[in-house]
Amino acid sequence: MKxxxxxxxxxxxxxxxxxxxxxxxxxxxxDFIAPIFITHGKGLKEEIISMPGYYRYSLDxxxxxxxxxxxxxxxxxxxxxxxxxxxxxxxxxxxxxPNGLMQLSIRHxxxxxxxxxxxTDVALDPYSSFGHDGIVIDGKIINDLTVNAxxxxxLSHIKAGADWVAPSDMMDGRVAAIRSAFNDSGxxxxxxxxxxxxxxxxxxxxxxxxxxxxxxxxxxxTYQMDPRNGSEGVKEALFDESEGADILMVKPGIxxxxxxxxxxxxxxxPIAVYQxxxxxxxxxxxxxxxWINEHEAMMESLISFKRAGASIxxxxxxxxxxxxxxxxxxxx
Length: 332
Ligand code: PBG
Hints:
This protein is α/β, with parallel strands linked by helices. It is 38% helix and 17% strand. The chain has an 8-stranded parallel barrel with strand order 1-4-5-8-9-10-11-12, surrounded by 8 helices. The chain has a two-stranded antiparallel sheet with strand order 6-7. The chain is globular, with a radius of gyration of 20 Å. The mean pLDDT is 96. The structure holds ligand PBG. Ligand PBG binds next to helix 6.
């Protein structure tokens, strides 16, 4: 034994200081993007039943939540809106209305919290009478017509003051179209966070409850990716990179760490992971039952994204994880 053990790997695990010293990955509140759900109305802070501890806010209630996020060091937010039924149609035009809820929210937040990096979801599902991310004709989601609508939607967000758009629709060519529209309109500093490898996942259910955006017919498999494919995810990321995306995203997170790793090996733009609603709800539900420890599972899931090669994490745990980091590393 004495002779064989030239190296004792447990030395690097001996105590917290050593473990911190040799840690290959770390988390910081700056890594997180916090999703924000906004709804019509006044005085509303509604808990999403399938996402315990996560809320939809009316615009007049948002500032307190943003203050809390800022106080734990979060500096980036991603906004989603829940539309009224009578604002939904099959044109996507309302999505680009300068006085729509999204555009009003952008203007409000940019005024009340100008220091936040403000990102917006770009896809038609909250505005679609069919609950799909694109325009539907004869039961099919039409790519190029949808891209035209998405470009208008993205421009309206940037015009209202958003810093970044995050196209989540998975239409072909939308990153190039949005980039070129930004160039033509002089928005040279507007960022594009592309949902590059977005899978047709069972894990979006709680989010669709939150925004009332479940597909009215069929599923999203003609645009979101097939979970059986990994190299196709790399292809999508390479396309988005060449079309001008500033950050490439993989979604969901935990079931797709291989895709994160593969993309991080061949792409040079920063990689983000979206830890989606179902991932949040699974950890919440199991911990509520007392079967796992919420804080430990949360932190372990978040560090797995870093280990796989992502540097940015969109997560419903953003506030809680940041608080946990501050509590455990007070000098952060
Ligand atoms: C809209 C969109 C979805 C999510 C982000 N943007 C839902 C979907 O594609 O059906 C999912 C986020 C989550 O589950 O947390 N296109």
